[in-house]
Amino acid sequence: MWTINDFPAYAMLLGWSTKGYLACPCCLKGTRSERLFYGGKECYMGHRCYLPKNHIWKKDKDSFDGKVDHSQPPEPYSIDDVLYQLEDLENIILSNDPSVKTKISHDLRGDNWNKKSIFFELPYRRTHLLRHNLDVMNIEKNICDSILGTIMNNIGKTKDNLKSCLDLEDMGLRSTLHPLKEGEKWKIPPAPYTFSPSEKKKKHFCNFLKELKVPDGFSSNISYCVNSKELEISGLKSHDCHVILEHLLPLAISDLLTPLVREAVIELSMYFTLLCAFTLKVDELEQLETQIPITLCKLEKVFPPSFFDVMMHLPIQLANEAKIGGPV
Fold first, then answer.
1. d(CA 162, CA 187)
2. Distance (Å, whole) CA 71 – CA 115
3. 10 Å Cβ neighbour count for 10?
4. DSSP 8-state class, residue 246
5. Which neighbouring-strand residues pair with 134?
6. Which of 2, 209, 201 is nearest to 119 (CA)?
7. pTM for this structure?
């Protein structure tokens, strides 16, 4: 009936590239993104477009990207719209490889289609509301890794670094987080979304995870992934991230970080907990659809733009997919 794969394989089967400024395979041409000058990557923010028309945050320039946002969410594409865009891609594969002949580039086409998927040869494909599933476990793992790496400020894993601070300065946002140059070195101010030195030493949640006891079969032994001396967590599997994000993270940060950061992270955790329930109700899923833009906007108010890769955008699509495809 449909496929479910991680994001790179999703791109191969759908035929829509999940890289670049139009990376969302659900929003397609309506994907909202911005390329970061110093970070050199695309960030997918702008979730205020999913809020109600009269929401107060639409006029709040200082807390977001410095602009008023009265735009509306992207309109869903019908199968006829998709097939129309794919008309000139019969037996053609777009590629950056010079050995592969391409008919036309993405820039000239104005979309991210690489090819016409072979799945369109199936006779029932036109009537499907959901042709490819987003893999919730894969999304959870990427989001969990981003959150843990950022709040623990682990080098190489955090989204908060010198480039992200320079991007904040370049965008004119959050002056308290702009880097300061002292001689030949840069000093990065402490951020509200990272643990303070005292939180790391005395009540860091590494100790919480290291000493945690859970029922048999609830999860793997997460304590094996925790290094209390280096204050790092590594080697987490997808199910470990699933358990941490939905059950353990809200408990571990209950008295850490700032209230706004805690509130946003715990709301995101609750979203995935309700989404991954064994039994789903349509009215609850509709409530999740209404709540997730607010949660993502709260995250936008505190985390740097570099935090918002495409994985942080995809939760906006998951409740609708659950309504069509059923429980995760």
1. 8
2. 30
3. 19
4. I
5. 5
6. 2
7. 0.91
